[in-house]
Amino acid sequence: MAAPKKPTPKKPTTASKPKPASKKTTRSFGEKVKWFFIKACLWFFGVSIASVVFFKYVPVPFTPLMIIRAIENKTGGKEVYFDHDWEPIDKISMNLQKAVIASEDGTFLIHNGFDFKALQKAYKSNERGRRIRGGSTISQQTAKNVFLWQGKSYLRKGLEAYFTVLIEIIWGKERIMEVYLNSIEMGDGVYGAYAATEHWYRRDASSLTPMQAAGIAAILPNPRKFKATGSSSYINRRKERIVREMRAVGKINYNAK
């Protein structure tokens, strides 16, 4: 008969050691906001730079202003008229290029996007309560027309300065002028040199005379109010002044500084 097995003595139980606390840390609200802001800035810079590079080579099909004007006319019960066709700069009259430089930005060919003297004059003029005037360059106007909305907020002006620097660096003067002359409002529902010359003079954009080019440039402060043909005495005086100043512009060299 087999001897009975002795009971195996139980090992003394020891209290289980607590597991080390997880090293996973939770971000505070402030840190989350910080990271969101950093990611948003990186996303904005990436998209904005990519957009500027893209439109260096591709025609701008439409601008925010074109959409805004169409909505305004639609909600106002007006006819929604839209005329815009892209025209390469070598097919746009040199007279029109000189006319917009003479009327809008006399230092366009030599500044780096901003005319600080013009801004100072505009500030002083507005401060004295005179008729409000702007000091925006063609580069600034192009940046605003293509990438931004209308308005006078500090945010928009800051973004305008940012995009102005980008297009000056990436596009260069000739491309800025080309986009400007193809995107700017030149009549009610009329955008760009091709549509404007057809609308006002029934002719090709490459064949504008100095006076005709001056007529288009003269209405740019308010192209929905003024007319390039059958103009008021005020616009006729502007035309004559612009033609005189066009002679001072001389030969345009977009690569010179």
Description of the structure:
The chain is mainly α. It has a single domain, classed as Penicillin binding protein transpeptidase fold, CATH 1.10.3810. The chain is built from ten helices and three strands, in the order H-H-E-H-H-H-H-H-E-E-H-H-H. The protein has a three-stranded mixed sheet with strand order 1-3-2. A hairpin with a 2-residue loop joins strand 2 and strand 3. It is globular, with a radius of gyration of 31 Å. The model has no long low-confidence stretch (mean pLDDT 86). Keywords: Cell inner membrane, Cell membrane, Cell shape, Cell wall biogenesis/degradation, Glycosyltransferase, Membrane, Peptidoglycan synthesis, Transferase, Transmembrane, Transmembrane helix. It is a single-pass membrane protein. Pfam families: Transgly (PF00912).
Count of domains: 1
Q: Architecture in CATH? A: Orthogonal Bundle
Please trace the helix and strand order, writing H or E for each element: HHEHHHHHEEHHH
CATH class designation: Mainly Alpha
Order of the strands making up the biggest sheet: 1-3-2
Q: What average pLDDT do the residues reach?
A: 86
CATH homology group: Biosynthetic peptidoglycan transglycosylase-like
Largest sheet: 3 strands, mixed
Uncertain stretches of 5 or more adjacent residues: none
Strand content: under 5%
Number of strands: 3
Radius of gyration: 31 Å
GO cellular component, one term: plasma membrane
Biased composition (Low complexity): 1-19
Pfam families: Transgly (PF00912)
Region (Disordered): 1-25
